[in-house]
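A note from the maintainers: we've had questions about how concatenated examples are separated. There is no special marker in the raw files; a new sequence line simply starts the next protein. For clarity in this README we add a label.
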Amino acid sequence: MRYQRIDLNLLIALDALLAERNVTRAAERMHMTQSAMSGVLSRLREYLDDSLLVPVGRSMQLTPRAESLIEPVRNIILQVDATLGVKPEFEPATAQRHFRIIASDYVTQVLLAEVLRRIAQLAPHLSFDVRPTYAGMAQDLDQGRVDFLITPAHLTLSDHPQAVLFDDTYHVIACQQNREMVDGITLEQYQSVGHVVYQAEQGTNPWFEQWYANQHGNTRRIEVVAHGFLLMPRFVVGTGRIATIQTRLAKQFVQAMPLRLLEPPLETPRLTEVLQWHRYRDDDPGVQWVRDQVVSLAHVMPAI
């Protein structure tokens, strides 16, 4: 299909070039040879009368015109996909779809694993790519590269629809063999013993860590930094360390490991987890069905 002398199929290639900023990586993404992608880039340069990608040192950078095209081109592709690429009906028992979800290992443990177990029974031909949270996850949802994002409420995107899933609080976990905390933990103990804390691989901190730093500064002694919520209790068992973890997750840890659940000796924030999907896919029957499964199971979780 052509519009004003441009092959609309080239928009897909242009989107890949704008995203990758590299001919070789764009070619790999499009399952093309490098020479074929170079030919596509030449055609795009001729049509747009702009270099699009220019060498700067050892890398390639987008021209100002190319930068201005990133969002419009992605929106065109998303709108075409939402209009033509989705079947008007969705039959769970027979549908064959692949969905991409971003969620922390905490959310996966307390909710998403059970959701996917239920879906496996109702829609056995669906498949899922569950990705851990990362710095660019909001951008990937905005650009339609993932179908769902589950994130704390303060990190949601205002341009896309959302549904509140569940609330959570925080508790402290300590080893059962730690005799100093049999009757609870004082603020003095909390600030003097070693802590296990979570930090994303990109160096960003979750909601509680940000809140504590803002409210109390550097008043804890951090002994271990774990790059996953599910790793944290492993560094508490058999030690004098403690960790402050979401209550729903902490209760699961206490049931499975020799740990003790303690009330925090200070007020802690409340956490709200939210499901988001792209606005162009709001009427997609498949997206609607999957999000209904997530929301319905979240809403029957026990209250905290």
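[label: protein 2]
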Amino acid sequence: MILNGDAIQLNYGGFVPLSTVDWRGRSVCTVFFRGCPVRCTYCQNAMILTGQDFREIDEVVALIKGSKLAISGVVFSGGEPTLQKDALVTLARAARNLGLATGIQTNGVFPDTLETLIKERLLDRVALDIKARWARYNNLLGGNYVKNVQRSLALCTEAHISGALPEFQVVVTLFRGYDDEVAIIASETGDIDLVLQQGVTESVPPLSEKELKKIADGLSRRVLIRTRESGEIVYESDRSRRASRKR
């Protein structure tokens, strides 16, 4: 693979040949991209936020091909995959050529990359990680990111509504004591599928599935709840069912 006379390389973070948890309803392989400008204290992949391990794109494509008989899609994760635009677009094209569906897990801080992927119809699924309400975003992440993430949300929402992006969900990772954020985030992100994900750190006990359901009870909408114990489940409270009947 050549770009402007130079071989495209991926700053490689790792590879999982078969996963049944990264895309509900699919068996996929997962390619991890090294590097991320955001420093979330709870990141489960902190070891690949920095450093260098450059691999030729063809080497990574070969890994994907090696899983092809057992999978129907590829998930690009990190780190932050949209940080490496050229490598990501090239790998997404390669996955398409192999007949595989493509998904991405992203924090949304590089909307230009998402725009290119959407315009080329290279994405079947986006999981957009929303860290907090907009008013807290820049202070929490330690940088001027909120406008970029808002643009990514708008791009993906528009693409999803138009049919250019088949699957789109907003993921909120929740920790004990921060449940008051959920209703605000839900209102700020609209009617997109919402995932309440169990946050795990060494210092604070994680919220249980029962506790996450109680938080979801305060929302007039169906949500997905994701925990280590139960995986991902669809949850609809009595309040959300009543709201659905009124529509």
